[in-house]
């Protein structure tokens, strides 16, 4: 007699159950217009989290000196409070990249909810009765990252994003106009 399929690993996703596959991404534009699914979190893997805002330009830019310092301070403050370890962080002005390891699902959810709620209020000076509208373009995008080569590549990508944000290196784009993620090409031009 065969073993019964466990629902714990694939909770909330019929396709994952049907195909017996593991989801590693959540948020961003992936799930727009689709039913809600759980955010995959694994205590033995890191997470690459990206938060994007098209409003974060000019006065609302996350790279303005006051905003940049306060965003970083709040990131580490809430990470410590909710048991999240931050490995790398990059502020791109209109988006944030964070490579982290959550201590628990509940801690990570609280961290993400708090951090994503405080930053728009900090940047836009929104207060109760003085709303400024939606700040983030979509849910925070997250992707599970295994330690080893994938972790190193993600870490290098975040580092490159920091260099691009400060104008140290130019942003690379492919033929379609999308930013290239190839970190090794950095050493071709900058020796």
Q: Could you please describe the fold and organization of this structure?
A:
The chain contains five helices and five strands; from the N terminus they run αββαββαβαα. It is globular. It has helices spanning 14-19, 65-81, 105-124, 149-165, 185-190; strands at residues 25-28, 46-52, 84-91, 95-102, 139-145. It has a domain at 23-31 and 40-147: Alpha-Beta Plaits (2-Layer Sandwich), CATH 3.30.70.1290. Helix 2 packs antiparallel against helix 3 (105-124). The protein has a five-stranded antiparallel beta sheet. Mean pLDDT is 76; it is low at 16-20 and 181-191. A hairpin with a 3-residue loop joins strand 3 and strand 4. With 191 residues, the chain is α+β, with helices and mostly antiparallel strands.
The helix/strand class is alpha+beta
State the assembly state of the protein chains: single chain
**SSE order, one letter for each helix or strand:** HEEHEEHEHH
| Beta-strand fraction estimate | 15-25%
Highest-level CATH class of one domain: Alpha Beta
Please list the strands of the largest sheet in the order they lie side by side. Answer: 1-5-2-4-3
**CATH 2nd-level architecture of one domain:** 2-Layer Sandwich
**Biggest β-sheet, characterized?**
5 strands, antiparallel
Tally of helical runs: 5
Task: Count the E strands.
Answer: 5
Fourth-level CATH superfamily of one domain: Transposase IS200-like
From the alpha carbons, calculate the radius of gyration and give it in angstroms.
18 Å
Poorly predicted segments: 16-20, 181-191
What distance lies between the first and last C-alpha atoms, to the nearest angstrom? 62 Å
């Amino acid at each position: 007699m065969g073993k019964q399929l466990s629902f714990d690993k694939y909770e909330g996703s019929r396709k994952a159950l049907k195909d017996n596959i593991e989801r590693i991404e959540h948020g961003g534009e992936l799930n727009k217009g689709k039913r809600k699914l759980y955010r995959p979190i694994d205590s033995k893997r890191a997470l690459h989290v990206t938060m994007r805002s098209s409003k974060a330009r000019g006065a609302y830019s996350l790279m303005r000196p006051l905003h940049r310092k306060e965003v970083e301070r709040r990131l580490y403050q809430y990470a410590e409070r909710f048991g999240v370890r931050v490995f790398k962080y990059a502020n791109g002005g209109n988006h944030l990249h964070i490579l982290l390891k959550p201590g628990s699902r509940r801690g990570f959810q609280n961290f993400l909810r708090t951090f994503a709620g405080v930053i728009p209020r900090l940047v836009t000076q929104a207060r109760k009765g003085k709303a400024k509208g939606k700040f983030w373009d979509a849910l925070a995008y997250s992707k599970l990252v295994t330690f080893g080569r994938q972790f190193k590549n993600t870490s290098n990508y975040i580092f490159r994003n920091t260099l691009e944000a400060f104008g140290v290196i130019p942003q690379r784009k492919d033929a379609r106009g999308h930013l290239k993620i190839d970190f090794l090409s950095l050493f071709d031009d900058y020796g």
